[in-house]
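Note to self: keep these together.
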Amino acid sequence: MGRGPLVTEIAQHLHLSQATVKTHIGRLLAKLRARDRAQLVIVAYETGLVDARRRNA
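Structure:
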């Protein structure tokens, strides 16, 4: 099973508080009617927001 970044890691990378990251994730889940973060990743790939062929190092 894949493991995405933790809320703390996302917050540090984006220079946001953990609470802000949790709020954004929660709003995305609600707006997209997704049951978990894995479904958010699927939506990101399906809509072209993320490209599997392009990786940032």
